[in-house]
Amino acid sequence: MLEKVIRHIIAVVMLAVLLSQSAMPASAQEDYRFDIGGGLGMTGYLGDANTSTLWGHPGWDAEALLRYIANPRWAFKTNFYVGQISGDSADMTNVFPDNQTFKFKTTFYELGEMVEFNFFNYGMGERYRKLKRISPYIAAGLSFMVWQTDGKANFTMAIPLGVGVKYKLSPRVNLGFEFLMKKTFSDKVDGEQLSDPYGIKHAFMKNTDWVSTMSFTISYEFSQRCRACNYKE
Question: Are 72 and 94 in contact (CB under 8 A)?
Fold first, then answer.
Protein backbone atom coordinates (compact mmCIF):
# COMPACT_ATOMS: atom_id res chain seq x y z
CA MET A 1 0.00 0.00 0.00
CA LEU A 2 2.79 2.46 0.91
CA GLU A 3 4.57 1.77 -2.39
CA LYS A 4 1.35 2.60 -4.23
CA VAL A 5 0.98 5.88 -2.28
CA ILE A 6 4.60 6.82 -3.07
CA ARG A 7 3.99 6.16 -6.78
CA HIS A 8 0.91 8.40 -6.66
CA ILE A 9 2.89 11.16 -4.93
CA ILE A 10 5.59 11.01 -7.63
CA ALA A 11 2.88 11.22 -10.29
CA VAL A 12 1.39 14.29 -8.57
CA VAL A 13 4.78 16.03 -8.52
CA MET A 14 5.33 15.26 -12.21
CA LEU A 15 1.87 16.64 -13.00
CA ALA A 16 2.75 19.78 -11.05
CA VAL A 17 5.85 20.30 -13.18
CA LEU A 18 3.82 19.91 -16.37
CA LEU A 19 1.19 22.37 -15.16
CA SER A 20 3.81 24.92 -14.24
CA GLN A 21 5.31 24.70 -17.71
CA SER A 22 1.95 24.97 -19.46
CA ALA A 23 0.44 27.68 -17.26
CA MET A 24 0.02 31.08 -18.87
CA PRO A 25 2.75 33.50 -17.80
CA ALA A 26 1.58 35.90 -15.12
CA SER A 27 2.72 39.46 -14.63
CA ALA A 28 3.95 40.75 -11.29
CA GLN A 29 0.64 42.53 -10.79
CA GLU A 30 -1.55 39.40 -10.96
CA ASP A 31 -3.14 38.32 -7.70
CA TYR A 32 -5.78 35.62 -7.20
CA ARG A 33 -8.57 35.01 -4.70
CA PHE A 34 -8.89 31.23 -4.83
CA ASP A 35 -6.76 28.11 -4.94
CA ILE A 36 -8.11 24.66 -5.89
CA GLY A 37 -6.35 21.32 -5.83
CA GLY A 38 -5.86 17.93 -4.29
CA GLY A 39 -3.36 15.66 -2.68
CA LEU A 40 -2.33 12.19 -1.55
CA GLY A 41 -0.63 10.93 1.57
CA MET A 42 -0.51 8.71 4.62
CA THR A 43 -2.68 8.38 7.72
CA GLY A 44 -2.06 7.35 11.31
CA TYR A 45 -4.21 6.51 14.32
CA LEU A 46 -3.91 6.75 18.10
CA GLY A 47 -6.49 5.10 20.32
CA ASP A 48 -7.19 1.98 22.35
CA ALA A 49 -5.81 -0.31 19.63
CA ASN A 50 -2.63 1.78 19.30
CA THR A 51 -1.63 3.96 22.24
CA SER A 52 1.89 5.10 21.34
CA THR A 53 3.11 4.42 17.77
CA LEU A 54 1.37 6.83 15.41
CA TRP A 55 2.65 5.13 12.25
CA GLY A 56 2.36 1.58 13.60
CA HIS A 57 -0.34 0.76 11.03
CA PRO A 58 -0.09 3.46 8.33
CA GLY A 59 -2.95 3.95 5.94
CA TRP A 60 -3.62 6.19 2.95
CA ASP A 61 -5.55 9.41 2.31
CA ALA A 62 -6.73 11.49 -0.64
CA GLU A 63 -7.69 15.15 -0.33
CA ALA A 64 -9.59 17.76 -2.32
CA LEU A 65 -9.21 21.40 -1.30
CA LEU A 66 -10.52 24.87 -2.03
CA ARG A 67 -8.67 27.78 -0.45
CA TYR A 68 -9.71 31.43 -0.16
CA ILE A 69 -6.59 33.61 -0.18
CA ALA A 70 -7.36 36.60 2.02
CA ASN A 71 -3.83 38.05 1.75
CA PRO A 72 -0.22 36.77 1.61
CA ARG A 73 -0.35 35.79 5.31
CA TRP A 74 -3.89 34.42 5.83
CA ALA A 75 -5.93 31.80 3.99
CA PHE A 76 -9.17 29.89 4.69
CA LYS A 77 -9.38 26.34 3.38
CA THR A 78 -12.28 23.94 2.84
CA ASN A 79 -11.05 20.37 2.48
CA PHE A 80 -12.50 16.92 1.96
CA TYR A 81 -10.57 13.81 2.97
CA VAL A 82 -11.14 10.13 2.35
CA GLY A 83 -8.70 7.78 4.03
CA GLN A 84 -8.12 4.46 5.69
CA ILE A 85 -6.96 3.82 9.27
CA SER A 86 -6.34 0.59 11.19
CA GLY A 87 -4.96 -0.76 14.45
CA ASP A 88 -4.17 -4.00 16.26
CA SER A 89 -3.96 -4.17 20.06
CA ALA A 90 -1.83 -7.32 19.81
CA ASP A 91 1.12 -5.07 18.89
CA MET A 92 0.87 -3.13 22.19
CA THR A 93 2.52 -3.83 25.52
CA ASN A 94 -0.73 -2.93 27.30
CA VAL A 95 -2.91 -5.89 28.22
CA PHE A 96 -6.72 -5.76 28.12
CA PRO A 97 -8.92 -7.58 30.65
CA ASP A 98 -8.98 -11.37 30.05
CA ASN A 99 -6.01 -10.89 27.65
CA GLN A 100 -8.36 -9.91 24.85
CA THR A 101 -6.97 -8.48 21.63
CA PHE A 102 -8.77 -6.26 19.13
CA LYS A 103 -8.04 -5.06 15.62
CA PHE A 104 -9.94 -2.92 13.15
CA LYS A 105 -9.74 -1.28 9.72
CA THR A 106 -12.08 1.42 8.44
CA THR A 107 -12.43 4.09 5.77
CA PHE A 108 -13.30 7.58 6.98
CA TYR A 109 -14.73 10.61 5.17
CA GLU A 110 -14.05 14.08 6.52
CA LEU A 111 -15.21 17.59 5.61
CA GLY A 112 -13.49 20.49 7.34
CA GLU A 113 -12.80 24.21 7.50
CA MET A 114 -9.27 25.39 8.28
CA VAL A 115 -7.54 28.71 8.95
CA GLU A 116 -3.92 28.97 7.78
CA PHE A 117 -1.31 31.51 8.86
CA ASN A 118 1.82 31.80 6.71
CA PHE A 119 5.02 32.73 8.54
CA PHE A 120 6.15 34.75 5.48
CA ASN A 121 4.30 36.83 2.88
CA TYR A 122 3.60 34.00 0.45
CA GLY A 123 3.73 34.76 -3.29
CA MET A 124 5.87 35.74 -6.26
CA GLY A 125 6.96 39.12 -7.63
CA GLU A 126 6.45 42.57 -6.10
CA ARG A 127 9.60 42.96 -4.01
CA TYR A 128 8.09 45.83 -2.01
CA ARG A 129 5.64 43.32 -0.48
CA LYS A 130 8.57 41.03 0.49
CA LEU A 131 6.87 38.00 -1.04
CA LYS A 132 8.49 34.59 -0.59
CA ARG A 133 8.08 31.57 -2.89
CA ILE A 134 8.20 29.25 0.10
CA SER A 135 6.59 29.60 3.51
CA PRO A 136 5.88 27.35 6.49
CA TYR A 137 2.46 27.77 8.07
CA ILE A 138 0.30 26.66 10.96
CA ALA A 139 -3.31 25.56 10.62
CA ALA A 140 -6.32 24.88 12.84
CA GLY A 141 -10.00 24.31 12.29
CA LEU A 142 -13.10 22.18 12.75
CA SER A 143 -14.23 19.14 10.81
CA PHE A 144 -16.95 16.48 10.59
CA MET A 145 -16.00 12.83 10.18
CA VAL A 146 -18.03 9.78 9.10
CA TRP A 147 -16.85 6.15 9.19
CA GLN A 148 -18.18 2.61 9.63
CA THR A 149 -17.06 -0.08 12.09
CA ASP A 150 -18.78 -3.29 13.18
CA GLY A 151 -21.33 -2.73 10.40
CA LYS A 152 -22.50 0.52 11.98
CA ALA A 153 -22.06 4.06 10.62
CA ASN A 154 -20.70 6.67 13.03
CA PHE A 155 -20.37 10.45 13.01
CA THR A 156 -18.26 12.85 15.07
CA MET A 157 -16.73 16.31 15.10
CA ALA A 158 -12.95 16.75 15.21
CA ILE A 159 -10.41 19.51 15.83
CA PRO A 160 -7.56 19.42 13.28
CA LEU A 161 -4.27 21.11 14.30
CA GLY A 162 -1.07 21.07 12.31
CA VAL A 163 1.77 22.54 10.32
CA GLY A 164 2.74 22.66 6.69
CA VAL A 165 4.86 24.29 4.04
CA LYS A 166 3.88 25.84 0.68
CA TYR A 167 6.08 26.33 -2.39
CA LYS A 168 5.22 28.32 -5.52
CA LEU A 169 6.27 26.26 -8.50
CA SER A 170 4.97 29.05 -10.75
CA PRO A 171 2.87 32.20 -10.18
CA ARG A 172 -0.34 30.10 -10.12
CA VAL A 173 0.80 26.56 -9.25
CA ASN A 174 1.55 25.61 -5.64
CA LEU A 175 3.05 22.51 -4.07
CA GLY A 176 2.37 21.75 -0.43
CA PHE A 177 3.12 19.39 2.43
CA GLU A 178 0.85 19.28 5.48
CA PHE A 179 0.75 17.26 8.70
CA LEU A 180 -2.42 17.36 10.80
CA MET A 181 -3.40 15.74 14.10
CA LYS A 182 -7.17 15.50 14.44
CA LYS A 183 -8.69 15.03 17.88
CA THR A 184 -12.10 13.44 17.51
CA PHE A 185 -14.97 13.79 19.95
CA SER A 186 -15.59 10.03 19.75
CA ASP A 187 -14.05 6.89 21.22
CA LYS A 188 -15.64 4.68 18.56
CA VAL A 189 -13.34 5.36 15.61
CA ASP A 190 -11.78 1.96 16.36
CA GLY A 191 -15.11 0.24 17.00
CA GLU A 192 -17.71 -0.31 19.71
CA GLN A 193 -15.64 -2.97 21.51
CA LEU A 194 -12.82 -0.49 22.10
CA SER A 195 -15.03 2.41 23.21
CA ASP A 196 -14.20 1.73 26.86
CA PRO A 197 -12.24 -1.53 27.32
CA TYR A 198 -11.06 -0.68 30.86
CA GLY A 199 -14.42 0.59 32.14
CA ILE A 200 -13.13 4.17 32.52
CA LYS A 201 -15.73 6.91 32.22
CA HIS A 202 -15.47 8.85 28.96
CA ALA A 203 -13.94 12.33 29.13
CA PHE A 204 -12.86 14.86 26.50
CA MET A 205 -9.12 14.43 27.13
CA LYS A 206 -9.36 10.69 27.89
CA ASN A 207 -10.65 7.74 25.85
CA THR A 208 -11.02 9.72 22.61
CA ASP A 209 -9.32 8.76 19.36
CA TRP A 210 -6.87 10.72 17.20
CA VAL A 211 -6.46 10.52 13.43
CA SER A 212 -3.50 12.02 11.57
CA THR A 213 -3.00 12.89 7.91
CA MET A 214 0.30 13.66 6.20
CA SER A 215 -0.36 14.85 2.65
CA PHE A 216 1.44 16.19 -0.41
CA THR A 217 -0.73 18.58 -2.43
CA ILE A 218 -0.82 20.46 -5.70
CA SER A 219 -3.12 23.43 -6.32
CA TYR A 220 -3.90 26.06 -8.95
CA GLU A 221 -4.93 29.67 -8.32
CA PHE A 222 -7.81 31.36 -10.16
CA SER A 223 -10.20 34.34 -10.03
CA GLN A 224 -7.89 37.31 -10.44
CA ARG A 225 -8.31 39.99 -7.81
CA CYS A 226 -8.85 43.55 -9.09
CA ARG A 227 -5.79 45.47 -7.93
CA ALA A 228 -6.63 48.84 -9.52
CA CYS A 229 -10.14 49.61 -10.75
CA ASN A 230 -10.57 52.76 -12.83
CA TYR A 231 -13.99 54.35 -13.08
CA LYS A 232 -14.97 56.36 -16.13
CA GLU A 233 -18.29 58.11 -16.70
Answer: no
